[in-house]
Amino acid sequence: MQNRFDIGTAPMPPLRAEARPTARDAEGHIRGVTIGAPGLIRATLGAAVAGTAILVLAWLPAEYGIDLTGLGRVTGLTEMGEIKQQLYAEAAAEDAAKPAPAAAPASTDPQVLERLTAIEAQLSAIAALIGAAPAVPAPAAVVQQAAPVSAASAVAEPAAPVWRDSWSYTLQPGDGIEAKLKMTEGAQAEFDWTASGGVLNHDMHGDGSGKEISYEQGRGVPGQAGVLTAAFTGNHGWFWRNRTDAPVTMTLHVRGEYERLLTP
Length: 264
Known about the structure:
By secondary structure, this protein is an alpha+beta fold. The chain is built from 4 helices and 9 strands, in the order H-H-H-H-E-E-E-E-E-E-E-E-E.
């Protein structure tokens, strides 16, 4: 009887993955990836370009307020860097203004104290001798009556200034606040601000028309008065910061050639 072979019912041998050939050197070690000089140059140049972009676009504006492309001003990194630099400058100024250590107390040497006691006793004896001498009558004082002042010659007191705008704000310790005037180039505004309850750090500056300017800065100032002349058309004013340990109320008075006062 002849056996028939049916391929459909025959057992299938297990599949085996074929091992890929591995590159090895003469000693049998697996060789690593090789790269030529052009590839190294391209990788180095790419890393340098990326590092320069990060330096110019992010790090310089955020740390030092240096914005070479203008993108830092748009993203707000430049303002953050300027605030950091201002805080560093304020901290350095405060460290420099710290008072010198107090002088050492006077000596308590017993010999020194004994000598001082003897000197004081001698001075007391001299004062007693002087007091016992006959007193010399003092000459009579001559009283001269002042001439009457007529009402016409009296100078009238100047009237209190009339301000166009006045604004007050209380700064807690560490707080900062800004107020600006919207002005055109060459316009002048008279101002007078005072710090009640302490002193303030201030920065009088302006910005607008793609320009920035710092007119004046001060540390630990109780107040200031003067005339602000706009260097260009834009917003010009003040930034105050309270570096004391107590609340300080700032009061600003302004008048002159400006469109309006801009406050928070």
